[in-house]
Each structure stands twice: as structure tokens, then as C-alpha cells.
């Protein structure tokens, strides 16, 4: 069976859910081989095997540690040359898309970004599905040149453990000189919020322009629920919350069990990033706000009154 390379998304060996999703998809296409670049492989090993990585290409060289784009693209190009995989799957985040674009140029291959599904294609190759224009259209496509390279959006597949534990083959892979073209000389740790990662959280509480820049009640509610904090583009553009927290068409796609939209009108571009959430709750003072068209529960009211009350009630219920 042909190998399918999956670029592992991790922080010091803590594997992100997107990788389990990609390995699940890769098993439909061939035999998954994980490509682990960076440090902390021991922490990642078990998860990679559990989700079906039959082989792991490990690059723990200090020359390519960290999340540098150019060395990762070069390493993948080396692997595509030596392993001739059936496809390469890469997480569809800003870093992944840049790596994929460079890899496509280096290997003279076709690239599809932001796929929401990847299947084997009759007659060989892969068939992908993309959801475009905020979910208005579904595009089916296939790659006809080189090694298919596909970036896959988070939450495109439910991670499924492999029926049998995968073989534990680890291949240490030496980076070429070209892959050592850049290296990180210093990195400062980001202040940890203690909150879950936005795309992986079971609960997301998001704030919009209705917060007027005060995210304290949104954060307090999120913390009472153990949730991640998201933001609309209006809030991000105003500089009230970091761009990495933006939910929507040009932000992150989330699909949590519970999504709470606070002071967010429900523009189509925002919906594109959260409408697949299992339960949607909105707090908005305008009872005609479009967000109320897609909610399971809606609260018409001022978020500065509703959110603190909800937070207190949740804390009291938890004891
Ligand atoms: P508004 O639309 O201004 O809504 C604010 C809401 O808060 C209103 O409904 C108001 O009634 C309510 N409110 C006000 N005060 C209170 C209060 N005290 N209590 C309760 N409710 C209150 N947007 C995204 O979010 N994500 C994207 O990825 C994204 N990508 C885009 C891509 C393109 C190409 C374009 C053109 C736009 C994109 N947008 C995106 C922007 C989008 O069109 C909207 O402008 C944006 O989502 C609006 O953000 P908002 O709901 O916070 O603000």
C-alpha cells in the first residue's frame, strides 16, 4: 500500500487534534507515515501509533527545530523524493498552507488548500472537497500533477483510533544542507492563558463588537466553563483581541460541543467558522440580530448584565 505523508502539528511533542484527524483521513488513502519535526518525540509517539501512523519520519536535528517554514518545506520535499508517497496531508493553518505552497513548487506538484474531505479517486490519486464562499458552494477537485499535496481544515474528520496498533517503525531522517537554511536563535514563551486551544476546545465563548473592547466578561464566562475564547473579525480588527483568536471565514474554523456568541451579529463570514458547532447560544441586545437565526438558545439582553449572571450561576452550580 502506498505511503501517505502526514505533517505532525505539535508543540514540544504534544500532538494537536488536527494530526489525529489527518491520520484518520490518511488511512482511507493508503498507509499513513507521520513526519515529526521538532523536539519531544517521546511524548508524541503513542498518539501517532494510536491513530495509525505505520511509520514515523523523525527529524530532531537542532538545525530545524522550531516552526520554521522553509526548512520544513525542504524536508518534506526530500521525503517526497525518497518515499514517493501517494499524497501529502498538511494541517490547514497559516503555517501549514505556506509549507504546502513551497512544497508544491519544489516538487512540481498540484496543491489543494482548505479541503474538508479527501478520498481516494477512482483510477488513482485523491479527490478532495472544499467548502467555499462561506459554505455556499461545495467544490470537488482532484490533483493531476505530481504528488497530490492537500491542506485539510481542522474538524474535517472525527479522529478515529486505528483498529490495530500501528507498527512502531521510526526512521531518523537527516536534513539536507538546504533544510538548514534558517534556524531559530531565540524564542520567548508566550504568556500561557491556561485555556484550551481554540480549534480543539469542547466549548468556545466568543466576543464581538458588542463587547466594546472589554473582553473581561467573555473571559470570565469562558473560564467558568473551561472554554477557549474566540473573537469576531470586528473585535480583532479593532485590536481588542489577537488575530489568532478570530473565528470565521478568514479566521479559525471551530466545531465545539457548545459555542457561545456574545455581542456578535452573525455575519455570514463569522458563521462560516462556527456554524457546525453542536449547540449554539447567542447573547445579543438586538432581537433581530441574524445570529438568532441559527442558535439553539438565544438570550436577548446586554452581555454586560447577562454574562456575569451566567458566570456566577455556573460557578455556583459547580460548587
Ligand atoms: P457587528 O456586526 O457590529 O455586531 C455587533 C453585535 O453586537 C450587534 O448585533 C449588536 O446588536 C450587538 N451588541 C452591541 N452591544 C451589545 C451589548 N452590550 N450586549 C449584547 N449585544 C450587543 N468576520 C468574522 O467574524 N470572521 C471572519 O473570519 C470574517 N472574515 C471576513 C472576510 C471577508 C472577505 C469580509 C468582507 C468580512 C469578514 N468578516 C469576518 C467580517 C464580517 O462581515 C462582520 O463584519 C463581522 O463578523 C462583524 O463582527 P461583529 O458581529 O462582532 O460586529
From TrEMBL:
The lineage of its organism: Bacteria, Bacillati, Actinomycetota, Actinomycetes, Micrococcales. It comes from the Bacteria. One of its GO terms (molecular function) is electron transfer activity. Heterodimer of an alpha and a beta subunit. Binds 1 FAD per dimer. The keyword Signal does not apply. InterPro entries: DHS-like_NAD/FAD-binding_dom (IPR029035), ETF_a/b_N (IPR014730), ETF_a/FixB (IPR001308), ETF_asu_C (IPR014731), ETF_asu_C_CS (IPR018206), Rossmann-like_a/b/a_fold (IPR014729). SMART domains: ETF. This is Electron transfer flavoprotein alpha subunit. Transmembrane segments: none annotated.
Amino acid at each position: 500500500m502506498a505511503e501517505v505523508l502526514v505533517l505532525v502539528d505539535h508543540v514540544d511533542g504534544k500532538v494537536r487534534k488536527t494530526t489525529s484527524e489527518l491520520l484518520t483521513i490518511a488511512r482511507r488513502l493508503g498507509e499513513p507515515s507521520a513526519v515529526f519535526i521538532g523536539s519531544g518525540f517521546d511524548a508524541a509517539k503513542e498518539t501517532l501509533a494510536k491513530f495509525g501512523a505505520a511509520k514515523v519520519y523523525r527529524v530532531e536535528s537542532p538545525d530545524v527545530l522550531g516552526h520554521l517554514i522553509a526548512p520544513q518545506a525542504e524536508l518534506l520535499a526530500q521525503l517526497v523524493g525518497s518515499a514517493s508517497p501517494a499524497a501529502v496531508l498538511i494541517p490547514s493553518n497559516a503555517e501549514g498552507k505556506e509549507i504546502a505552497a513551497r512544497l508544491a513548487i519544489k516538487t512540481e506538484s498540484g496543491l489543494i488548500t482548505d479541503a474538508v474531505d479527501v478520498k481516494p479517486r477512482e483510477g488513482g490519486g485523491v479527490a478532495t472537497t472544499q467548502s467555499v464562499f462561506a459554505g455556499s458552494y461545495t467544490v470537488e477537485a482532484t490533483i493531476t500533477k505530481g504528488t497530490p499535496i492537500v491542506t485539510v481544515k481542522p474538524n474535517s474528520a472525527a479522529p478515529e483510533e486505528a483498529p490495530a496498533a500501528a507498527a512502531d517503525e521510526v526512521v531518523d531522517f537527516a536534513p539536507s544542507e538546504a533544510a538548514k537554511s534558517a534556524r531559530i536563535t531565540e524564542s520567548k514563551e508566550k504568556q500561557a492563558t491556561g485555556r484550551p486551544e481554540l480549534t480543539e476546545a469542547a466549548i468556545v465563548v466568543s466576543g464581538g463588537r458588542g463587547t466594546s473592547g472589554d473582553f473581561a466578561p467573555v473571559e470570565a464566562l469562558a473560564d467558568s466553563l473551561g472554554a477557549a475564547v474566540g473573537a469576531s473579525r470586528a473585535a480583532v480588527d479593532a485590536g481588542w483581541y489577537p488575530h489568532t483568536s478570530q473565528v470565521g471565514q478568514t479566521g479559525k474554523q471551530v466545531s465545539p460541543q457548545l459555542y457561545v456568541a456574545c455581542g456578535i451579529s452573525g455575519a455570514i463570514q463569522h458563521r462560516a467558522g462556527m456554524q457546525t458547532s453542536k449547540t449554539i447560544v447567542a447573547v445579543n441586545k438586538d432581537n433581530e440580530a441574524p445570529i438568532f437565526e441559527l442558535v439553539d438558545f438565544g438570550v436577548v439582553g446586554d452581555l454586560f448584565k447577562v454574562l456575569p449572571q451566567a458566570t456566577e450561576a455556573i460557578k455556583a452550580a459547580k460548587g
